[in-house]
Description:
Layout: E1 12-13, H1 15-23, E2 27-30, H2 34-39, E3 41-42, E4 46-47, H3 54-61, E5 68-71, H4 78-89, E6 95-99, E7 113-114, H5 121-128, E8 137-138, H6 142-147, E9 154-155, H7 158-164
Parallel strand pairs: 1-6, 2-4, 2-5, 5-6, 8-9
Antiparallel strand pairs: 3-7
Amino acid sequence: ANSGSDRTRPVALDLEAFLEFRRRGALIVDVRPAEEFAAGHLRGALNLVLNDEFSRWAGAFLEHGVPVLIVSSSTEDRTATDAAARLGRLGLDLVQGFLDGGMAAARGRRDLVETTRQCSTQAIQRRLRQAEPPLIVDVRTSSEFAAAHVVGAVSIPLGVLWDRAGELPMG
């Protein structure tokens, strides 16, 4: 028996049930490592890696009263249960469930899955040497930025990026 822990134990949802919750307004939180997320994730998902910073970022980005769906690497519910417990400690206790089978459940569904392109350090260095280098927005904390950053980067901590997005050039 799971005495007391059942409140935070999310339900395994097949893809169709998972998508129905999304249609009803639930937010998808993908807790996999950034590299896995970039390789393929459900369209509209928010990547909050389940690490030491998870609770901080969840508190910054998730709203109380908004239902949450979890995607994890594991086909077991252990990772999803850990994420749900951490969310619950923040008062974000509307976890509707997790995608049973992880992203494998959406394999072949190009209508649902998208990728995110990541750049290597070398590729960024080449782009910065171009005649018109790209704008680099450093979303780390102010203290991390102060410790070291790319020359010319603009510091806008991730927690306030949405509020300050108007400061960035379009395009």
